[in-house]
Amino acid sequence: MDQISIDEVYVDDNIDHEIYVNENQKNDIFGCCHRYRECSNAKRCLEPDTIDFMNCEYKKNLDNGNIFYGKNANDFNMNIYKSLLYKYHSLDDSVRYELNCIIIYYQKFHPSFLWYNSDAIQILQEQGFISAYTPKRMILAEYAKLNYIKSLLDVETKNNLNKIVKQCRGNRARINKDDIVDYYIKNGIIELDEYVNRFVSLSVPNELCQYIYELYYDFVQGHDSEYIFKAPREKDNEPTFVNAVLL
Questions:
Q1: DSSP β-bridge partners for residue 17
Q2: What is the reported pTM?
Q3: Would you call 18 helix, strand, or coil by DSSP?
Q4: Do the beta carbons of residue 192 and residue 184 sit within 8 Å?
């Protein structure tokens, strides 16, 4: 095969090659890379100034002084974080452990989730770290599903459920889980109230989201394996807020 020298490569002098490169790279625009926190802490892009990173949108923001992450974020209030830190370090060890579990779950999985209720949860809510409420209807819907599944195996449970179904159904050939939930709520079954109160739905107040993330990076990151989540799992035969089925 004949070799081609650089001098023999055709170059059209009428093309603005800088524009040509940019046009061909425009589809490679990306929001940021995995170093976004490092860059935020440094207040500048830490990657080499090459074509690969010229299309980083966050680099353009950093160049213009717009920082979105970390303690250098434009809207980060250090006084709020210091106040949160004071409360964080003032917690009993067991309560702080619970909070760290919640922080990990929040940071890695979902902004709101079902959790087992406890005295620690009440303290964390009073301190303003979390928002918590009991989603009674949703939990009862899951209870109805679980109760139906159990009824396939347990004669006594099946008989009790059949009584409820009969009262709910009326002239209809079929009912769904909402009918049973309505029945539970209307009749105020004490055992179900006790069941519902075992669970709580957790989230982080919107105004604290970025500060909770900083707690994670300052105190929890790298130690994730030391914490055991208290979120109900499907394998525990507890409500999971997923796969609700019609009866």
A1: none
A2: 0.71
A3: helix
A4: yes
Q: What is the DSSP code (8-state) at residue 236?
A: G
Q: Does the domain spanning 78-134+198-236 belong to CATH 1.10.530?
A: no
Using DSSP's 3-state secondary structure scheme, residue 198 falls into coil
Q: Distance between CA atoms of 180 and 182, rounded to whole angstroms?
A: 5
Q: Which are the contacts of 158, defined by CB distance < 8 A and separation ≥ 6? A: 151, 152
Q: At what angle do helices 136-151 and 155-169 cross, to 10 degrees?
A: 120
In Å, what is the CA distance from 55 to each residue of 19, 49, 52, 67? 13, 10, 7, 17
Q: What does R_g of the chain's alpha carbons equal in angstroms?
A: 28
CB 129 within 8 A of CB 238: no
95 in Cβ contact with 212 (< 8 Å): no
Write down the domain spans for the chain.
15-63, 78-134+198-236, 136-196
pLDDT at 109: 81
Instruction: Identify the top-confidence range among 24-38, 94-108, 232-246.
Output: 94-108
202 phi and psi, to 5 degrees? Answer: -115, 150
Identity of the residue numbered 19: I
The structure tokens listed for 182 are 């309505």
Rounded mean pLDDT, 166-194: 70
Lowest mean pLDDT: which of 68-72, 122-126, 236-240? 236-240
Please report the DSSP string for 136-190 in residue order.
HHHHHHHHHHHHHHHHTT-HHHHHHHHHHHHHHHTT-S---HHHHHHHHHHHT-H
